[in-house]
Design goal:
Cyclophilin; 11 strands; three-stranded mixed sheet; 23% strand
Length: 238
């Protein structure tokens, strides 16, 4: 997910203040509602990646993403957005270099991987694999046959120094995803409703630089909802 940023500052410490008290978080979680021309995706953010979670909540509450474009789409791979320059971009303008002036330290968690619907942070290829403060992508990916999966498994083990978990192997074979990204980009959330929206966005006509020929804008909001309700409605586990 390279986006060619020229520089970054350190993530402001104020981001940590965006999460409510531990008492509130024990009972509630933040449901992200991402609206597109092709429907709505609902996502939950992982507690195991607290810096990314707090930063994304701050940006959502600040309405930062409202009106921005999905500026890069690749079918069977992912849809990417969050470049602030896309809000007023003209037709054909190159996008992907916009930022908010800081980056977030990588938060790699072996149990969080690039399955379909994973929300992950883009970065500029820096050695630390630190994330953009605003640009993200949602994984579409594809399912892998036995031969393809064996190649991906070997790649994951070579890159991460450990074999993929049985869950990873099963998910990539049945649900799909983009396993070659594991260990390179921080996964910090997951679509819990609206996976078909990813497919609809990803298949739109695009230019040679993978920018959609028609502007695809987003609106992103969120609210704290009781975990009991989330479990019942979206079959998630906490």
């Amino acid at each position: 997910m390279k986006y060619f940023l020229l520089f970054f500052l350190v993530l402001p410490t104020l981001v940590s203040a965006q999460l409510p008290s531990a008492r509130v978080r024990k009972k509630k979680d933040f449901l992200v509602i991402m609206t597109t021309d092709f429907g709505t995706m609902k996502l939950l953010l992982h507690d195991q990646t607290p810096k990314h979670k707090a930063n994304f909540i701050k940006l959502v509450n600040d309405k930062f993403y409202d009106g921005l474009l999905f500026h890069r789409i690749m079918q069977t791979f992912m849809i990417q957005g969050g470049d602030p320059n896309s809000r007023t971009a003209t037709a054909g303008q190159a996008l992907g270099s916009g930022n908010v002036g800081y980056k977030i330290p990588a938060e790699f968690v072996p149990t969080l991987f690039h399955r379909k619907g994973a929300l992950a942070a883009a970065h500029d290829g820096n050695p630390e694999k630190a994330s953009s403060g605003c640009q993200f992508y949602v994984v579409q990916g594809r399912t892998w046959d036995e031969a393809g999966m064996q190649q991906q498994l070997a790649r994951i083990q070579s890159m991460n120094g450990r074999p993929p978990t049985p869950e990873q192997t099963d998910v990539y074979r049945t649900i799909g995803g983009s396993p070659h990204l594991d260990g390179n980009y921080t996964v910090f959330g997951q679509v819990v409703d609206g996976l078909a929206v990813i497919d609809s966005v990803a298949k739109q006509p695009r230019s040679s630089s993978n920018r959609p020929l028609k502007d695809l804008r987003m609106t992103v909001s969120g609210e704290w909802i009781k975990k009991k309700k989330l479990v019942k409605q979206y079959k998630v586990q906490f």
